[in-house]
Amino acid sequence: MKILVLSGSPRPSGNTAAMVAAFSDGAREAGHDVTVVEVCKKKIAGCLACEYCHTKGEGRCIQQDDMQEIYPVLKEAKMIVLASPVYYHSFTGQLQCAINRIYALDKPKNLKKAALILSSGSNHVYCGAFYEYQSSFLNYLHLEDMGIFTAYGKENKSEELLSQLREAGRKLK
């Protein structure tokens, strides 16, 4: 299965990156093709709401930025994983821009599954990310939920958490 991980962490060695690496390693061990895109290293602007993609663009965004590298991977992916630290009740701004730009494709035809990976300093800040994941990805795109994985405080980078994520990646079918 082709899996696209959109990682919204600006810290390459941070907690979210460790969680993504563990999940991706497990999925690769199970034979899946995993592409991790660190959106914070990309130049991705927010959606302009110009509707070019749904009129003249025929599913192509008018903006010529790094999102153009992600669209082909997204079109082939059967699973999408959203990964983000939570600083203020939802995804990082960089990840949110990439999520909003999926609008150009409307409902990527091959996507069937999704998972969510979140890290924070507190366990009471995930509601915004949960809502968007469940409403936009699971309900609107009709994707099967393959798991929500969260860590806060001392759980971050714990071997127990990383083992759980590796195992979740290994069990994907």
UniProtKB/TrEMBL annotation:
InterPro entries: Flavoprotein-like_sf, FMN_Rdtase-like_dom, ISF_SsuE-like
Highest taxon, organism lineage: Bacteria
GO molecular function, one term: oxidoreductase activity
All residue ranges annotated as the NADPH-dependent FMN reductase-like domain in the record: 1-123
Keywords on record: Flavoprotein, FMN
The protein, known as: Flavodoxin family protein
